[in-house]
Every structure is written in structure tokens, then in C-alpha cells.
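Tutorial, part two.
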Amino acid sequence: MDNLVLFDGECNFCDRSVQFIIKRDKNARYKFASLQGDAGQEIIRQHQVPAEMDSLILVENNSCYYKSSAALRICRNLTGGWKLLSLLLLVPKPIRDYLYEIIARNRYKWFGKRDSCTLPSPEIRKRFL
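Running the prediction step on this input gives:
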């Protein structure tokens, strides 16, 4: 499945990020699955995602993108000025991922953790696996 965003369903920041994407994805291009769910685990197995990867993952054109690459590739397809962030893909990946990792390492401390994913509205629910 293409245009699939896998996210940490226990992370408040990740949940807000998904809501952010949904709001700006006017063509409903992206579908979503939590890393902890059965569908997410199956996608991880199919694409041989490294076990330690608990980052944002984008499956696009049958390829997996992680961390900053995933986030910036998603921005390419959002409405408004968010598309401009995709220009940061020109920055070397080690630099981008270093900054991404700072946020990722501290996401529970800064934004909190939840026991389960937020239940989306019925019209949005069809975009979740």
C-alpha cells in the first residue's frame, strides 16, 4: 500500500502530527496506521523495517522513508506553504536526521504519552488501517 504514514500511536506529538497532516491533505492522499497496531506491524514486516525504528515512516511508491525524509516528503503534498519545507530534502540526511532525533528522543518528555490512539471521526476513520 502506498502513501501510508506509520506513526507512534502512544505519542501525543505524533497524534497531533497526524491530525496536522489530515487537515492539510485536502485530496486525502495519505492513509494512516499506528506502529503498534496489527496493520502497522504487518507493513513493517512486509517492508523489512529495522526493529529499532520507532520513527515516522512513510511508504510511498513501494519504498519506505524514515525520520526527516518521511516528514519532508509528506510536506510536499500538503496544502499551503508547507510544501516549501520539502526543499529541506536538499540538506544532507545526517544533518536533518540529527535534528529530527533530538525531537524524537524527547517527544514523550515534551509532549506526553497516551495509552492508545485518538479515535478519529467516522469520515476520517476510513483513512486508518
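The longest strand covers residues 4-7. In part three we will examine how such features are distributed along the chain.
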